[in-house]
Amino acid sequence: MQKIYLTNTLTNQKEEFVPFDKNEVKMYVCGPTVYDRAHIGNARSSVVFDVLYRLLKAIYPKVTYVRNITDVDDKIIAASSQSGEDAGVLTKRMTDYFHDDLGALNCLLPDHEPKATENIQQMIAMIERLIAKGHAYVSDGHVYFAVRNFTAYGRLSNRRLEEMEVGARIEVSELKYDPLDFVLWKPRKINEAVYFDSPWGHGRPGWHIECSAMSKNILGDKFDIHGGGADLIFPHHENEIAQSICESSTNQFAKYWVHNGFLTVNGDKMSKSLKNFITVKELLDLGVSGDVLRYFYLTAHYRKPLDFNQKALDDAKKGIEKFTVALESAPKEELYNSSDEFLRYLTDDLNTPLALSYIQKLAGQILKGDTSKAAELRFYCGLLGFELKTKRPEKNIPSEIILLAEERQLAKAQKQWVEADRIRTEIENLGYKIMDTKNGYNITSS
Q1: Reading across the β-sheet that carries 136-139, which strands appear in turn?
Q2: Cα–Cα distances in angstroms (integers) from residue 438 to residues 250, 378, 396, in the given order
């Protein structure tokens, strides 16, 4: 069996992945809070864990992938109140949009996609166990987790309790016994439409307890991989560990913690105030294909920062065009010789940049006439999640001419007229004519 190595945030080391049960790998990934359309930072995490899911499925006999939907949260209530739309209608609509966006990126559906609102009783039961064991307390309708009762708190984020500051990511409240304690249950506010019955009155769960309860409900007291963006390490994932380990003597929770890095836009953090907030839908509407956006995400190692800019997007489009032209120009052979080199890159902590580099070489060999590489390229493109849906090249036109024509289309789209004319001249010098049409172009022999 092929070995996989992953960087475990909990130990800050790259480790050989050894699942609890070699016959079933269990993975939980924090999903969206469905109050708005997914932005390109959200989608990076989805693509990263989709690639990991595909890799695991290729190696292990069974993989159970769980990705939750947070459909009760302060942001949801605020958005519902502002728009006047019922919270349930809003979250259903945004969940459908999320599925549409990830479908365009060719992300596989998880095996389970639990919603927070469907697991309230599991959350209440977990909170009750934490209270009974002395790890949580009730204060004026709130229930808080007593952080200092868990001596390992801060291990995931590599933070010491005495160095933690109360503020931006830790709620300030006089109701807490300790400023660092975090909320497990919060009471209903006046006129708040979203609430549930509980032993502590009408209210709703805190964000952190939701994932602990849902992962336990589906995957049990121990599972192999917990994933999410680096922004979730503290306090969300740190708090998940604390409450899960403390609620039961048998709860081992997650063994490997995998986090993807941040995404910037032209070097700046993405934010609405900077007017550089980009949703997946906006890019799709501009004609950026899901394959191109997916390729862009894979050009950097998942743990590293990734900057979204026009050049990176153009390079991704050229990469996808090269794959497409190479495959369309070759016969669809079913047999191929698997490459240890490609799998070595992908199983080494999902080194997608090197994996892409390898299959770019394959595409280059095919374009030079070695069509025996086509089946191998097709398989590895599928393993990385590329669909490569485009028109077939003109009959009897060499693949290198088609590739030049596609590069000219890109130059025209970017209004790089000089470059477009240069490519036209190059095509003509090779003995072919290109004529622009309403739907693209036609190529004929001179």
Answers
A1: 136-139, 142-145, 182-187, 203-205
A2: 65, 30, 22
Residue 30 annotated as binding site: yes
- Per-residue pLDDT band for 380 (boundaries 50, 70, 90) equals very high
Q: Which of 260, 290, 321 is at the close of a domain?
A: 260
The count of domains in the chain is: 2
Is 283 part of a structural domain of the chain?
Answer: no
The answer to whether residues 244 and 97 belong to one domain is yes
d(CA 157, CA 232): 10
Last residue in a domain, options 219, 243, 260: 260
**pLDDT tens figures, 392-434:** 445 567 767 877 887 887 777 667 888 888 988 988 888 888 8
The answer to whether 259 is annotated as binding is: no
Ligand-binding annotation for 246, yes or no, is: no
pLDDT band at 353 (very low <50, low <70, confident <90, very high): very high
Domain extent, residue 395, equals 391-446
Query: Quick check: is 318 in a domain?
Result: no
- Check whether 240 is labelled as a binding-site residue: yes
Extract the tokens encoding 348: 């080494």
| Residues 136, 87: Cα–Cα separation, whole Å | 29
Domain for residue 239, yes or no?
yes
Q: Evaluate whether 63 touches 22 at the Cβ level (below 8 Å).
A: no
Q: Sign of dihedral through CA atoms 161, 164, 166, 169?
A: negative
Between the CA atoms of 375, 379, 384 and 386, what dihedral angle is there, to the nearest 10 degrees?
60
DSSP label at residue 118 = G
Taking all residues of the chain, what is their mean pLDDT, rounded to a whole number? Answer: 91
